[in-house]
Structure formats: structure tokens, C-alpha cells
């Protein structure tokens, strides 16, 4: 199995972008990264059940074997406040392949 994220953690970003025009939310949380994939395929990150309330868990596709190409993946969701998530963890199958505890705030 490929360590999809641990090799290239610098290729991943997690941030919250402030939205002053939405009255119910502080802004939007974005998770952006690259995974090895076939150049003709498209993938997305899928939200899965978290072990804790303040943790966002995302699933990437399993069985990625083509390391000659990489694909960008993006996940976003509106967040009500800055403390909604303390960390973002990325899983491939049952294996945690990345965890980000620093979420940048963009105002």
C-alpha cells in the first residue's frame, strides 16, 4: 500500500476562508492536496464518520498505484465557527495516512 500523504505532506493545505457575507457561517473550510492517480481518472475526498466531534475525517480512494501522475483533490464545507474542527485526518481504507492539526485562517 502506498503512503499517499506522508511522503508529500507539504503538498497538502487546510484552511478556513472567512466569508463576511454569510450570516450563519464564519466561512468555508478547504482541504486541498495531491494524490497519485491515473492521469485520466478523477477523485474526490469523501467525509466519513469521525471518532471525535472536533475532528474532520476524509476518505481518499483506495488502490492508487500510478505514481507517475498526481491528481488534485479538494474538499470544502461551510463552518459555523473557528473551533468546529481541531484537526483534519485523511484515510485510505482503514489506514490514517495524514493528520493536520493546524488550520490556517484566511481573512
Distance between the termini: 38 Å
Counted by DSSP, the helix tally is 0
**Helix-and-strand structural type:** mainly beta
Low-confidence stretches: none
Report the helical percentage: under 10%
Strand order of the largest sheet: 5-2-1-8
Rg: 14 Å
The overall average pLDDT, rounded, is 83
Q: Per the principal axes of the C-alpha atoms, what is the gross shape?
A: globular
Give the percentage of residues in beta strands.
Answer: over 45%
The sequence of SSEs as H and E is: EEEEEEEE
| Oligomer description | single chain
Structure description:
The chain has one domain. The mean pLDDT is 83. 23% of the residues are buried. It is globular and about 40 Å long. It is mainly β. The strands form 2 sheets. A 4-stranded mixed β-sheet has the order 5-2-1-8, with no helix packed on it. Strands 3-4-6-7 form a 4-stranded mixed β-sheet, with no helix packed on it. The chain has strands at residues 13-18, 27-36, 46-48, 55-60, 70-79, 87-92, 95-100, 104-106. The protein contains no helices and 8 strands.
List keywords for this structure.
107 residues, 0% helix, mainly beta, globular
In short:
With 107 residues, the protein is mainly beta. It has one domain (6-106). The relative contact order is 0.32.
Topology (SSEs and partners):
Layout: E1 13-18, E2 27-36, E3 46-48, E4 55-60, E5 70-79, E6 87-92, E7 95-100, E8 104-106
Parallel strand pairs: 1-8, 4-6
Antiparallel strand pairs: 1-2, 2-5, 3-4, 6-7
Amino acid at each position: 500500500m502506498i503512503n499517499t500523504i506522508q511522503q508529500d505532506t507539504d503538498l497538502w493545505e487546510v484552511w478556513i476562508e472567512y466569508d463576511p457575507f454569510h450570516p450563519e457561517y464564519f466561512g468555508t473550510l478547504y482541504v486541498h492536496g495531491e494524490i497519485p492517480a491515473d492521469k485520466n481518472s478523477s477523485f474526490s475526498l469523501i467525509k466519513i464518520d469521525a471518532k471525535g466531534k472536533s475532528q474532520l475525517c476524509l476518505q481518499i480512494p483506495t488502490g492508487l498505484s500510478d505514481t507517475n501522475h498526481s491528481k488534485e483533490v479538494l474538499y470544502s464545507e461551510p463552518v459555523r465557527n473557528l473551533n468546529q474542527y481541531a484537526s483534519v485526518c485523511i484515510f485510505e481504507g482503514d489506514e490514517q495516512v495524514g493528520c493536520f492539526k493546524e488550520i490556517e485562517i484566511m481573512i
